[in-house]
Design brief:
Order of helices and strands: HHHEEEEEEEEHHEEEEEEEEEEHEEEEEE
Strand content: 25-35%
Number of strands: 24
Distance between the termini: 21 Å
Strand order of the largest sheet: 1-24-20-19-23-2
Helix content: 25-40%
């Protein structure tokens, strides 16, 4: 404000120059004093100086001018908008370029095929034969646990099975004995029937020749009928009894088969106490210790295919509708490019991300290890000319719906609504609201709150 101070000093000088001499000024002038002979009045020495309105008006105008200049200066230097330090913000230009419709995801190498090892039985770990990370063969023993309850169940099942087999044997013996007895009686009746038929046939011949009476013929006929009826009843009774006993034997055999099935399950349960590798591969996450108690369905580890791998990655939920099975991409490893393809998409969103799986199309890197991280680039569409913004932190806070546009003075920034399109890891496509060459704040907006204007001054 040096200019205002100099202006005020010059105004004071002009006012002092226009002032008329006052009594004090007159008293400061030298005067010649003489002794009067007569008494002289002082009225002739006072001079009345009339004050004009012009000086008051000029003074007032100058005062108003000073106030106006001071107000203008205050207005100019008064902060407008939220005060931020230029060191705390990052500014980028709106540029024209080629939008590359792809995304780069951080993926992790995993075995393409894995078999989960869960305990099917509970018990105490007695022996451990394998170590984590070892290559195992199919059927190789991994560990052994003990469970006295399962051994007791096996003994009970074996005892029950033995008892039922003994019962079936006795039933078959009784059935054979009864069948033999029926056959013997049936043979006797059949013999008696044949004798009665022969006798009656002779009596018929004799009766026709008049050698026997009609009464004797009737008696032989009755005897034949009685023998025939006895033979038929015995044969029918033997068939019914045989059917019943055969059904009893069949039921007993089915019961034994059920017992044998239970015995097989118990045997399998006891055999499961010795855990073997279901497939060949690399044993992973296997950390059992001798003496440890294992519970049913407890996760013990897994066996991975040591030769073939897949990639799993987390992708921002913004790309959920654009990432689909069959989308291809590539990654660089060992100075070579490898083609990958999206094989699975898990649409469940957790913490703003969803999961995908990628498989190698032709070849895979020879130096991959489980858990190794790789950057894979997935193509979502064709390149296209567009107005571009860098994909920076401001997108998280504004969602790409608005930005702070920096004024030409490089100090002020104002909030402006925009419309954006596709995105990748580096670029955002601008559809409307911005022009090429404009500058925007691309750092995080979280600290700005609800501010609509910013002023960047140190």
């Amino acid at each position: 404000m040096p200019a205002l101070k100099s202006l005020a000093q010059s105004l004071r000088l002009r006012i002092n120059e226009d002032k008329s001499p006052t009594d004090e000024n007159l008293s400061a002038l030298p005067m010649k004093v003489s002794t009067p002979h007569l008494a002289v009045s002082g009225a002739a020495m006072d001079v009345i100086v009339p004050q004009t309105h012009t000086k008051k008006i000029v003074s007032g105008m100058l005062l108003l001018l000073c106030i106006a200049l001071m107000a203008a200066g205050l207005w100019r230097f008064m902060p407008r908008g939220l005060q931020v330090s230029p060191d705390d913000v990052r500014i980028a230009n709106v540029e024209s370029g080629i939008f590359l419709d792809d995304i780069v995801v951080r993926s992790k190498a995993e075995a393409l095929h894995s078999v989960i090892l869960d305990s099917v039985e509970s018990g105490r770990v007695e022996e451990v034969f394998a170590r984590d990370g070892a290559i195992v063969k199919q059927g190789e023993v991994l560990f052994r646990i003990s469970n006295p309850q399962r051994n007791l169940e096996l003994l009970q099942r074996q005892s029950e099975h033995t008892q039922q087999i003994s019962n079936l044997a006795n039933l078959r013996v009784n059935f054979e004995a009864a069948n033999t007895d029926h056959q013997r009686r049936l043979s006797d009746l059949e013999f008696n029937l044949m004798q009665a038929k022969k006798k009656h046939a002779r009596n018929v011949t004799l009766a026709a020749q008049g050698f026997i009476s009609a009464v004797a013929l009737d008696e032989s006929a009755d005897t034949l009928e009685q023998q025939q009826r006895a033979y038929n009843e015995e044969k029918k009774h033997s068939s019914s009894e045989t059917a019943v006993k055969r059904d009893a034997v069949a039921q007993m055999e089915r019961a034994i088969k059920n017992i044998e099935g239970g015995l097989t399950l118990v045997n399998a349960t006891v055999a499961a106490l010795v855990v073997r590798a279901p497939v060949a591969g690399r044993l992973t996450d296997f950390r059992l210790q001798i003496g440890e108690t294992v519970k049913t369905d407890q996760h013990i580890g897994r066996i991975d295919d040591p030769l073939k791998f897949k990639l799993s990655a987390q992708v921002d939920e913004y790309y959920l509708n654009r990432v689909a099975i069959g989308r291809q991409g590539w990654l660089k490893q060992d100075a070579r490019d490898y083609v990958v393809e999206v094989s699975r998409v898990y649409p469940q969103i957790k913490e703003g991300r969803f999961s995908i799986e990628l498989v190698f199309k032709n070849q895979q890197p020879s130096s991959l290890s489980p858990g190794q991280s790789l950057d894979a680039q997935i193509t979502l569409g064709e390149p296209k000319a567009a107005l571009l913004l860098p994909n920076a932190a401001f997108v998280t806070d504004s969602g790409g719906a608005w930005v702070f546009v920096v004024a030409d003075n490089g100090i002020d920034a104002e909030k402006r609504m925009i419309k954006t399109g596709r995105r990748n890891n580096r670029q955002i496509e601008v559809l409307s609201g911005l022009k090429e060459g404009e500058k925007i704040v691309v750092s995080s907006y979280a600290a700005f709150g609800n501010a609509t204007r910013l002023q960047m001054k140190k």
